[in-house]
Amino acid sequence: MSHPEDPGERRRDALSHRLLRGGTEPDPRFTLANERTFLAWIRTSLAFLAGGIAIEAFTGDLFDLPVRKFLVIVLLLLGMLLSAGAAVRWLNVERSMRHRAPLPLPLIAPLVAVGGAIASGVLVVVVLTR
Amino acid sequence: MSPAPAAAPCPHEDPGLQPERTVLSWGRTMMAFCTAAAVHLRWLPTHGGFVLVLFGLSLSLAGGIYVSQRIRYARAALGVAGEKLAPDAISVMTTAGACMLLGVLGITAMLFF
Q1: Is the torsion defined by CA of A16, A17, A21, A24 positive or negative?
Q2: Quick one: which of A80, A119, B82, B106 has the fewest CB in 10 Å?
Q3: Domain for residue B89, yes or no?
Q4: Inter-chain residue contact B83 with A90, CB threshold 8 Å
Q5: What are the pLDDT digits (tens) for A62-98?
């Protein structure tokens, strides 16, 4: 348990105080590496969001409106889930490092695989049955 | 001819350049937000002015990252030099929250505008 008078503790903002209780500050390099992994997931999430918008904007001649709507909503929902999952994973990894515990499994990795497979499967079926 | 001014000393001695890599990673994320903002504009002819909210949100996030880069680097470099760095929970949660909001607003635009 960290001491409240620890200078490192005083540097932390109110939100990290609330979210990350107890334990000790990990090696700063690990904290920065965790932040970079979070950012990589956020960019993946933004790719899904922008991909959804691009499908609606550029495939008007290719797909009917219901198919377009389905694909856009699936991709936007995936993007949202990924960004939420990225924040939760950042928090869980930071907590594990503070308590010297094993790192949690990345549950958002199968989410990307399954979501991407569903969106691609729908695209293949629609293109083949046109 | 006067000699060239000496370069400012690096505030940390990490051979892995972790602060630089992290700031560059934020920079790539900033560019991704700019790209998302530009792609949102493609919805303007079909979904109307509501799309400007999405455009503005993406661009604000990119701008927020841009103006905080120098502070972010100083914080990370000093943290690595002093072997103590507080996690940046505010930036992480703001970025993730903004992405979720972009998704919600995108679905709203798709269904109702």
Answers
A1: positive
A2: B82
A3: yes
A4: no
A5: 778 888 888 889 899 999 999 999 999 999 999 999 9
Cβ of residue B89 closer than 8 Å to a chain A Cβ: yes
Is residue B47, in this structure, part of any structural domain at all?
yes
Three-state secondary structure readout of A6-36? CHHHHHCCHHHHHHCCCCCCCCHHHHHHHHH
Do B96 and A87 form a contact (C-beta atoms < 8 A)? yes
Q: What is the 3-state secondary structure (H, E, C) of B89-102?
A: HHHHHHHHHHHHHH
Query: CB-CB: which of B19, B28, B84 is closest to A43?
Result: B28
A10 touches chain B (CB under 8 A): no
Interface predicted TM-score of the whole assembly (ipTM), two decimals:
0.86
Residues in chain B closer than 8 A to A28 (CB atoms): 18, 76, 79-80, 83-85
Report the domain count for chain B. 1
Q: With respect to residue B6, please indicate whether it lies within any of the assigned structural domains.
A: no
The verdict on A121 touching B (C-beta cutoff 8 Å) is no
A37 in a structural domain: yes
| All residues at 6 or more sequence positions from B111 whose CB lies less than 8 Å from its CB, including other chains | A69
Q: Do B92 and A38 touch (CB under 8 A)?
A: yes
